[in-house]
Amino acid sequence: MRKYGIIGVGHVGATTAYTLVTKGIADELILLDDHNEAKAMAEKLDLEDAQARLDTRTRIKVGDYAELADADILFVTAGNIHALDNASGNRWAEFSYTREIVQDIAPKIKASGFKGVLIDVMNPCDCITYYLQQTTGLPQSHVLGTGTFLDTARMQKVVSDQFDVDPKNVTGYVYGEHGESQFSAWSTVRVNGLPIKELAADKDIDLNELEDAARRGGWAVHSGKGYTSYAIATCAVKLSQAVLADANLACPCSAFSEKYQTYVGQPAIIGKDGVVSVTELPLTAAEEAKFKRSAGLIREKFETLPGMAKKAVKTA
Amino acid sequence: MRKYGIIGVGHVGATTAYTLVTKGIADELILLDDHNEAKAMAEKLDLEDAQARLDTRTRIKVGDYAELADADILFVTAGNIHALDNASGNRWAEFSYTREIVQDIAPKIKASGFKGVLIDVMNPCDCITYYLQQTTGLPQSHVLGTGTFLDTARMQKVVSDQFDVDPKNVTGYVYGEHGESQFSAWSTVRVNGLPIKELAADKDIDLNELEDAARRGGWAVHSGKGYTSYAIATCAVKLSQAVLADANLACPCSAFSEKYQTYVGQPAIIGKDGVVSVTELPLTAAEEAKFKRSAGLIREKFETLPGMAKKAVKTA
Amino acid sequence: MRKYGIIGVGHVGATTAYTLVTKGIADELILLDDHNEAKAMAEKLDLEDAQARLDTRTRIKVGDYAELADADILFVTAGNIHALDNASGNRWAEFSYTREIVQDIAPKIKASGFKGVLIDVMNPCDCITYYLQQTTGLPQSHVLGTGTFLDTARMQKVVSDQFDVDPKNVTGYVYGEHGESQFSAWSTVRVNGLPIKELAADKDIDLNELEDAARRGGWAVHSGKGYTSYAIATCAVKLSQAVLADANLACPCSAFSEKYQTYVGQPAIIGKDGVVSVTELPLTAAEEAKFKRSAGLIREKFETLPGMAKKAVKTA
Amino acid sequence: MRKYGIIGVGHVGATTAYTLVTKGIADELILLDDHNEAKAMAEKLDLEDAQARLDTRTRIKVGDYAELADADILFVTAGNIHALDNASGNRWAEFSYTREIVQDIAPKIKASGFKGVLIDVMNPCDCITYYLQQTTGLPQSHVLGTGTFLDTARMQKVVSDQFDVDPKNVTGYVYGEHGESQFSAWSTVRVNGLPIKELAADKDIDLNELEDAARRGGWAVHSGKGYTSYAIATCAVKLSQAVLADANLACPCSAFSEKYQTYVGQPAIIGKDGVVSVTELPLTAAEEAKFKRSAGLIREKFETLPGMAKKAVKTA
């Protein structure tokens, strides 16, 4: 049986829950939201009201961390989206909230005896993911963040619009922070199998504009609806499916970089133990420099978290 | 190709859109929201950002009513959920808003040349559904409301909790207004094939309490999350699937009653032309009286809509 | 993770495997066929060749019974369909083959340490299911047969054709042997919520003809394609989903009858431990007599299996 | 509504039908098999018997070519698999049968007034696809063959096994005939984003062996089960979904090559009009030579079909 937990039942957590239920992916689902258990309960009811009209059933429980002991997947989605309302594109604006929340959540996860794979969706994603790994005591492979899995999807969408093709025709990766210092590694990107750099040169397309559109994609959604939910939930669920099926699926996500000693968005292989490996693609020197800079920014912020100062960090 | 339109991209409209996209049900989707086109555009973006991670593709467009001319299904979901914040269980509280909105929307639907099946999700559902049928000029069968399809799902959930079974083991119907005057027609309800009245007598279960829990189900969700979305979207999508597949599926919904000369929640058969027929089950005298009263309340409110006074109404 | 095993990779076993893979239901799948491991291997390859085109992944292994130790579900589908080629509607014609096969399979299941739920699809279904329960040492609830779940689906189809409605509008059950002595318990059957006996009386429909059409449904398929596969695989998978989700879903199937001391097709509730309970519906005296007779025939044949003579049987 | 037709209800046609029904993809399905209408009818029954257990409904009809007039998709799957039993890897062995069958089928398709997209699954695929395009009078874009879509999936599987990753991590294409003269264009193939040629050099992997394993994949399946069905049906359905959703999805398939004046397996973009375009990737000189040779073989056989001699061919 597939057992999922979700901590934080805001827009992202609730949409993730709905996705798991409406597609019959989860057999059992634990919703946890210490800061708004009434909402968790309401989401449970709304999901249960749907089940007479679905072909599958998911057992839903609210509020008991002990249920995580035998869960396969745990999504951590707590946050305060309103912190971003005037953030002008800066996901760090949410950090003052989420740094407190995660200090509350992490010990509870540890105490629950959770042994599965933790998928972090909180922002700033890379920094919080790293903190969760350090404080829950879970193996490094078992903790990952959605990171640039979403940004890569946005890049694929922006590029696919440009060429009027299915976004799945676009391969390649966005690297770095799930935030402003991210970048599209155009040397890795292909459209219908053709290098985008060549296509862009032929057609006089400005890749910087496409990169910016991809990076700003989340803010475009945020400004219109006040939050983002569908794409991020879809990404989170897909990562979890790769874990449950032991798929060894290639997904960019926030995974630990030995080279830069931090969690950061990069191509990884996802299987039953979470991050099976990271894939080192031959980036250009300029791309590598951007990657290093972005990783450095994450690491710097990470060290401001209590107990995470340089010397304290030990990678498992 | 399956072409859907959605008017109103609030929580219900957006969740309906997400369901159609994430489950690969719609090939083409038109989002329309004159009062908040920015949100419609943001939902489009969020849904498109998801598509690189989905196995199917849905083409999404925003804002052009003319696209409805060859759509198969049109959901009308406009509303103002905040009208209900202090409504104490009275969906008519939304009527002062929605009666205005629907007068704006109906002529646009008519002008679009839409010829498919219109599924109304606006509240008060039965009254607005009737108005939409009268003003769009669509055949009676082509216009239906989600009505008690949702209330019946809630009844099934409440009953299934009582007996610890799958909600699909519970058959039978909630009749009447999608609102306070609705009732669970217990004479039609069976659990695992056994009449609930007998089970309730054996086990000393108070059916009035269960009925009240079903009726209040929506408010429980509303009070915890500020709106309802997942169950209603699931119901709306299921009705549309019955239409597209010409399933002749038995679904309670808001359909026209010849006897009571109004749209009202009752068992119906849903196929490619919408409501193929309504099913007359042998209700008890007390149930029939409740049904009559509920239908009367709807009809009364309906007649307060401009141009809908008694003599003007002609059923197609 | 959802782990499935299938013993016997003929038409039914292979179609079941394909269903689990193509719908992303199974995370891991073990195919076992001692009598045709080459076919099991070919089915594995064919299913794996499909996976580049599917959104989900299923890990497939062939031939190792030890893998069953931690499987959730085991389908047993071995048989010899050609035994039925001239059987004129008599599933017992397959018994001379399957009684040998099951004596080979049962000890291997036991030795594997399988602790999940066993769903038997072999024919004659009820008899073989009972034998598997007795010889594997699994708890009674953990062993069930597809039994009249398929025959009920056929009855629903035949009735739905008669009334031009969705088969899901037809509720009620076929009882007894998955074979000739089965019967449609018309007192339990409703169409769109209305008792079929009343509808039949109104419309001058011969229920005996419908019953016969349902009973002969499998033979109609068999005579045209040489075997049956899609409906039976769909039924088997649905039972397994009810187990994995702990759905407590009402399904007629071959479950143990305390009253008649044999496995026999009857309404049951299916949850995580298999058969949670059987549902005793108020049959007519004539129906009860048919049920008793059918159960008796099964029991009689069952006792011809080695070690299953009357006194040896002990129900868990 | 999505309306499908299938001509030829053997293993591939029936499995395709089951996939469309069990996944709720088709709203309406027409099964046509002049040579075995009893089997078509049996498959219809088996699929209908399944529908009481499925969440969706598909209306199925048998035998009326006129129904194709408004169908969206037509699969042509007729063949004689036994022609391959001693074929030693030569799909042309089936040609003596299929060249007759297709001369019978093509005029019936034309007479039906079918205007949708025809997806050919008959063997030898490229040759028959070309013939169907010429004789049905459908536009070139509206006729395609599954061609190397399946062979590419097999290459992805073989490569993914070598590297223990998800087959979807493997990108790139098999070109040429759906038959012996096909080849894996290794210059286009990447694993986890890395060029396979480099990975193979590093790890001392023989790409010729992998290519041979991919090419022989179908025969491995055939020798074990007597036919292939699951992967080919999955490929066919996926192509049709790209058409219905107007996805512009990159899929290698049998599409017309202007350069070589024949249908042949190559990367193409699939949208609502079928083949939107073919993608010219920069092959190596050796690959281009293989492609030319393979296309030449197809063209040569094609010209042996009645009326298809050189001068008669006019590309639309």
TrEMBL record, chains A, B, C, D:
Binding site for NAD(+): 8-13, 33, 121-123
Keywords: NAD, Oxidoreductase
Residues in Lactate/malate dehydrogenase C-terminal domain copies: 148-303
InterPro entries: L-lactate/malate_DH, Lactate/malate_DH_C, Lactate/malate_DH_N, Lactate_DH/Glyco_Ohase_4_C, NAD(P)-bd_dom_sf
GO molecular function: L-lactate dehydrogenase (NAD+) activity
GO biological process entries: lactate metabolic process
Annotated family: Belongs to the LDH/MDH superfamily. LDH family.
Protein name (database record): L-2-hydroxyisocaproate dehydrogenase
Organism: Loigolactobacillus coryniformis subsp. coryniformis CECT 5711
